[in-house]
Every structure is written in structure tokens, then in C-alpha cells.
Amino acid sequence: MDSDRLLDACHFPAAPAAVDLAVSGGPDSLGLLLLARQAGLTLRVHHVDHHARASSTADADFVRQLCQTLVVPCEVHDVHVAPGPNFEARARAARRAVLPPLALTGHTMDDVAETIVLNLLRGAGLDGLAPMIGNPTKPLVDVRRADLHAYVAASGLVARHDETNDSPRHLRNRVRHEVLPLLNEVSGRDVVPILARQARLVAEDRAWLDELAADSRALGEVDCRELVGWPRARLRRWLRARLGHGDERHPPSADELARALAVVEGRVRATELDGGRRLSRSGRRLHLG
Fold first, then answer.
1. Are 100 and 127 contained in the same domain?
2. pLDDT (tens digit, 9 = 90+) per residue, 101-126?
């Protein structure tokens, strides 16, 4: 795919809009940087050094030097994530904490497909089946990873390689290197575009359901007798929006939502939620404390 067609597949704002880019030095983020530059955007690059690999400092130096060559402002963020359980999740949280909220990332259509499979394995609902779709920070979701890597290689740049992307210890790597190739073999076709198309359809249905569930009233303002008369899908989405937790309003887990529904329906008087919160029912009204 030539660079003009590749650029046509991107969802960048109109030039010369100013954007922040998250650039690790790998081929996906380098492709993001080169395409955003070709699109005529005003760029500022952000690189996060987790100091989790021996080569991480070299990655930071590579990004910094490349930005000097391209005359693009670059900011390197140093974060330190302690080894231990859930390292990937904690590293993501640390990365998000230092990056600008609307920093663009180099996630591709292949990342969308991988995330759908991962979310299916975790038992996700509609939101998990349409990851990244319509997200303004993911402008490359209609670009294939192989096309992006070929574009970077044609530029003459040699991207950095993160060896952890090869390790079978990480579930995403097994989905990428084992599960999706097997699905391709079984179906006799490339399943990534099929999964991406499915995600777009689910996103449209999700948006419609969100519209149906729209209700500005707070938890304690609605009589539970009214709530139990709603279609279950509407009630679940309404509760999800009001029981989100943390700075990023993480939605409640499936188990928490099931317990919350039991409170609404009067099967139990109260339940504990994430973050030390308690949802209770009193006088046919809900209370979150």
C-alpha cells in the first residue's frame, strides 16, 4: 500500500492541528509519527521510559535523536514500576498518568482484533467487543500492521524491537502469534478485517443502546420500582455509568453489576463495590456510600 492510500485510511484531525503522539520507538509508533508528519499536523512526541528492560534507555535515546532529526519537540517521561504481579496493567496505568489525555497511539486494526479476542476470553460485554472504535486517540484502527511496518521500512528507519512482544508469558502475544493464525487457518481467510468490521457494527449498536439508556437522574433520584420495569439491557448500562470508579471511571465488573442488580430488585439490601464503596437500597431508593 502506498503512503497516500495509507494516509487516507488514517483518522487524523485536519492539518495543521496540534497533536501529542505516544512514541515508543517500535514500528507501530514510528509509523504513527511519520504518517502524522506527512498529514501536516503540528507534532509533539512523548516517550515513556519504564526502565523495565535493559534496552529501555537506548529506546529513549533513539526517539529523542529521531525527533531532533525531524525537528519535532520531544519529551521523555521517566517512570518506575516495581516488579511483581500485574506488571503490564500497572505499567499501562503509569504510562497513562504521564501522557497527555488525548495523546495519539499507534494501535492498528490488528490490535483491535487481538483486543476483541482477549476481551472475549475475559467475558466482556458489548463495550469489550468494540474496542478503540470511534476513539480519537486511535487514528490507525483502519490500518493493517503489516502495511504500517512496510511503510516504516520504506522510510529507511530501523525501528526498535521490544523483546517482551515475543514472550509467550503475555497473553496478548499468544493471541497474536498463535490464536489469530489458527483462526485464519481454520476459517481459510484473514479474520482481522472480519473482527474489525464486527467491532464497528457492535459500536453502532452500543451507541444506540447508550442513547436509549440516557437518563440524567442520579442513583437516588429514581424509584427502584421504575428501574425494575426497564429492559434489562437499559438498566445495566444506566447502572454501569453511575457505578464507575476512579479517575478514569472504570466500569464495574460483571460480578459487581450482578450484585447491584440484586439490590435494585430488592433481593438483597446492600452490596460492597470496588474502592470500599457500598450500594444500598432504602425506601425504594439507591444510595452509594
1. no
2. 999 999 999 999 999 999 999 888 88
